[in-house]
Every structure is written in structure tokens, then in C-alpha cells.
Design brief:
0% strand, mainly alpha, 502 residues
Length: 502
């Protein structure tokens, strides 16, 4: 079942990435680069809204996983979910009541619009706010589905929603070129449909008539420390990953922000590729820890690390080393590719390092203790955020990309040692880093580096030859990485002629 979930959820993420790669050039062509900057603003707004999560989403996932394993009474579980879901609904209403009146000021006082009509920008901003609010109020029910390990259904429905969002959006801009109002009206309708379906489906996993055995305060009390820790982790994550976008939306033109948004969407493929696997790993680690299966917990932790490092390093290496060719193939615009290549390479490297570092957070999450993480990032944020803002002001998108790489190098190779020493021991950290991370990281980079040094310029002469070259590169890099992973996991068994994977 785990392999089936992994295949289906990974397929869904790959499908979403491919759709994004397919339609973004269409959006750029029919809407224009400046209008596409509003699409980037849409994504940024949705990310910043997660600050309001206050750790509730993480708490819902954890309680749902515990309820599924029989550790929580059905009535108590239902009471907790309903109370927490009200927070999401309340914040969605507040967002609409505050955001809609502020839209005209945002269009003139914050964004640096050069060519778009003011009224069209205001309509787009209002549509963005309503869409984000609709999606937000359905988030607790999406978290319920994740906690109940319904990744297969969730992935299948996400494929439908992605098709409506991307392919339907491409059809709208093709039929109404340059009409950003029609585009954002359509995206709002899709967001409302998606939120409704998720709310109905997730609600079926919340017991309706079960009797509550404990007062709600007593039920929430054990979750409070965990949720506060998760909340701060959420704020820290959003601050580190989105403050660059907020800063750049003010310091550069909307058109330049559109180019930046294009490159960061491409770079986000690294994290999107890991998301389904992470959604499987987190509940499984939590369940193993709750069951007291320490050996199973650490074995699964190491195996998950090895799979992640092998795949992510191979993909990130290809994208970073061939960033210009990837952007040119994708957009068909040499100017956009030249402007965004360095930015894409930096963000891809930073995202890959961040994906590997998330195992440190997973360790603390599964242990149900995020206090240490909260205190650490309370110290880090006053340093990280000003560095990113300073880099954005002085060096633009290249500066924020370099800052992102530096921050994640520190987290993975310096801070993770402290985390492991606190929650496990330093010896396990050394085994994890020396046996699971560094070897597969180096092996994953061998093929991309070999292609980078060996390929002649002639293979990049046209878009078709560039496409074929990148496809061959990707297949070779992933095949080599997975082969190295197989040998790493099964070396002892292979020597004994007893392969573990069949």
C-alpha cells in the first residue's frame, strides 16, 4: 500500500509540474509578463495566509492519525476538529472583509504597475482574495484527509482540480487574450469548486453523532504546546520562503516580478516533487513513534532520507546546471531565460537543501515536541529576514537566491547536528549524514555534472534538440540515482544473494 500511495501521489505531483510547465508559457504569451506577475502574487498570498494556520493544520493531521490508530475517542476527535475548523472559517471571513477594501491601495501603493489598467488590477486582486479565502476555509478538511492517509483519493482529485485550473485557464486566455479579469474570475470559480468538494469529502471522516467524553478545553490542552510549536515553525517557514517575494514585489517592477515568479515556479518543482512523499512519511513516522517501535522508526527515517536525497539531488542538479536551457525551452523567450537563469539555479539549489533539512523537522514533529525548534527559529528569524530583505534591496532576485542558499547550507550542515544531538544522539547524526545524505548527494550529481562538461553546444541549437537532450539527461540522472540507491540499500543483501527489493 505504501508503494501504491507513493506512486500515485508522486504521479499527481509530476502531473501538476508538467501542467505548470505547459501552461505558463501560454499565460506569458496571451496575458503578458506584467500580468503574469499578478499570478505570482496569487501564489504568494496563498503562502502568506498559512501564517494564520497557527499550527492548527499540523494538529489536525496529528490528531487524525492518532484517531485512525485508535488512540483518540471518536466523540473527542470530532469535537476537536469542529472547534479548530471554525478558526479557518473565521480567518477566511476576516480576510475578505479586510482585503477587498484594501485592493485599490495595493494596486497603486504597493505594486509597481506600468502598463495594466488600474481597474483590471483591482478586479484581479479581489478575485485573488476570494479564491484564497475559499481554499483556506477548506484546509482543515484537507488536513483530515492527510491524517487519515487518504493520499490516493486526494491525489486523484488534485489531478482534476489541476486540470481545471491550468488547462481551463489556458483555454480562457486563448479565447480572451489579455483579459486578466476573465482569467481571475475563472480561477475564482475553480477555487470555490475545489474547496466545496474537499470540505464535503473531509467532513465524512469526522464522526457526526459520537458522544464527546471530555470538555473541549481538556481536549485542546495537550495539543496546545504542539500547535504553538508548529505555528511558530509555520511562521518561520513562511517568513524564510516568502519574504523575498514580498520584498521584490515592492522593490522591482511588476514585469520583472513576473520573470521572477516564472523562475521560482520552475524551482518549486523540487519541493513539489517531494511533497507527496513527505505527506506519506510524516504520518508514518508519527505512528511508529506513538507505537513505541524505535527500530522501525529509525529504519524508516533513514530509508526515507535515502530515497529523498537520491531523487531530489539528481533533479536539482539537472535543473541548476542547465537552468538557461530549461527556461528557454519552457518559455521560448531568450530574454526571459537570460534574466532568470541565475535566479533559477540558486533557488533550485536552496530548495533541494531545504527538502533534505525537513527531515530534522520531521524528527521533532514525530516526537511531538517542537519547542526546541520554536526557540531556535526565534533566534534565527531576526537574522535571516533582514538578510533577505537587504539582499532584495541591493541585489534583486539574484541576491535573495544567494541568501536562500546560504540559509539552507547553515540549517542542513550546522543546525541539523544540534537537532539530532538533542532528540537522538550525535552518533546517529554522523551515520545519517555520512551514510545516507552525502554519498547519495554526490552520486546524484555525477550524471548532471558529466553531461554539463561533455555536451557540445550544438545540442542546444534548437528547441527540439534541447528538449531531447534534457529528456535524456533527466532519464540518465534519475536512473543512475535510483541504481545507486538500490545498491546502497541492498549492498549487504546482494553480497549474500538475498535482495531486499524485488
Amino acid at each position: 500500500m505504501l508503494k501504491k500511495k507513493l506512486i500515485i501521489t508522486t504521479g499527481n505531483q509530476v502531473y501538476g509540474i508538467l501542467l505548470g510547465f505547459l501552461v505558463v508559457p501560454i499565460y506569458l504569451h496571451y496575458l503578458g509578463v506584467e500580468a503574469y506577475g499578478l499570478v505570482g502574487l496569487f501564489a504568494m498570498t496563498l503562502a502568506w495566509l498559512a501564517v494564520l494556520d497557527a499550527g492548527i493544520g499540523a494538529g489536525i493531521i496529528r490528531e487524525s492519525a492518532r484517531f485512525k490508530s485508535g488512540a483518540v475517542e471518536s466523540g473527542d476527535y470530532a469535537a476537536v476538529i469542529r472547534v479548530l475548523a471554525r478558526f479557518f472559517l473565521a480567518t477566511s471571513i476576516i480576510l475578505v472583509l479586510v482585503g477587498v477594501p484594501l485592493s485599490p491601495w495595493i494596486a497603486t501603493g504597493w505594486l509597481n504597475v506600468e502598463h495594466l489598467q488600474h481597474s483590471s488590477v483591482v478586479v484581479a486582486l479581489i478575485s485573488i482574495i476570494v479564491s484564497v479565502a475559499a481554499r483556506w476555509q477548506s484546509e482543515p478538511f484537507r488536513n483530515v484527509l492527510v491524517g487519515h492517509e487518504e493520499q490516493i483519493w486526494l491525489s486523484s482529485f488534485n489531478s482534476v482540480a489541476l486540470s481545471l485550473k491550468y488547462l481551463g485557464g489556458a483555454l480562457v486566455v486563448w479565447l480572451r487574450p489579455g483579459d486578466i479579469e476573465a482569467f481571475f474570475y475563472y480561477q475564482g470559480a475553480v477555487a470555490l469548486f475545489e474547496a466545496l468538494v474537499i470540505r464535503i469529502k473531509g467532513g465524512r471522516y469526522v464522526p457526526a453523532a459520537a458522544a464527546q467524553r471530555k470538555p473541549i478545553r481538556e481536549l485542546l490542552a495537550p495539543l496546545l504546546g504542539f500547535m504553538l510549536g508548529a505555528a511558530f515553525a509555520n511562521v518561520a517557514w513562511i517568513a524564510m520562503t516568502q519574504v523575498d517575494k514580498v520584498s521584490l514585489s515592492k522593490f522591482i517592477s511588476l514585469e520583472s516580478f513576473g520573470v521572477f515568479s516564472t523562475t521560482t515556479i520552475a524551482a518549486s518543482a523540487v519541493m513539489m516533487l517531494n511533497l507527496p512523499f513527505y505527506q506519506i512519511v510524516l504520518p508514518r513516522l508519527t505512528a511508529l513513534k506513538a507505537a513505541g517501535d524505535e527500530q522501525g522508526f529509525f529504519d524508516f527515517f533513514r530509508l526515507a532520507t535515502q530515497i529523498t536525497v537520491a531523487v531530489i539531488t539528481a533533479v536539482a542538479g539537472c535543473m541548476a546546471l542547465f537552468s538557461y536551457h530549461l527556461l528557454w525551452l519552457w518559455t521560448g523567450n531568450a530574454e526571459v531565460a537570460a534574466m532568470g537563469a541565475s535566479v533559477l539555479a540558486l533557488y533550485v539549489v536552496g530548495n533541494a537543501l531545504q527538502v533534505i533539512y525537513t527531515f530534522c523537522y520531521s524528527l521533532q514533529y514525530a516526537c511531538g515536541n517542537l519547542t526546541f525548534n520554536t526557540r531556535a527559529f526565534a533566534c534565527f528569524l531576526p537574522v535571516f529576514v533582514p538578510v533577505i530583505v537587504w539582499a532584495a534591496y541591493h541585489y534583486g532576485a539574484v541576491g535573495t537566491g544567494a541568501a536562500w542558499v546560504g540559509i539552507n547550507l547553515f540549517l542542513l550542515f550546522v543546525w541539523s547536528r544540534v537537532v539530532f544531538a538533542r532528540f537522538v544522539d550525535a552518533a546517529f547524526y554522523r551515520r545519517w549524514m555520512v551514510a545516507d545524505v552525502l554519498p547519495l548527494m554526490l552520486l546524484g550529481l555525477l550524471v548532471p555534472l558529466g553531461f554539463y562538461w561533455a555536451l557540445p553546444e550544438a545540442v542546444w541549437a534548437g528547441r527540439l534538440s534541447t528538449l531531447l537532450t534534457l529528456l535524456v539527461l533527466g532519464v540518465c540522472a534519475l536512473s543512475a540515482a535510483l541504481s545507486a540507491l538500490y545498491l546502497r540499500v541492498n549492498l549487504a543483501a546482494l553480497l549474500a544473494r538475498r535482495p531486499r527489493w524485488g
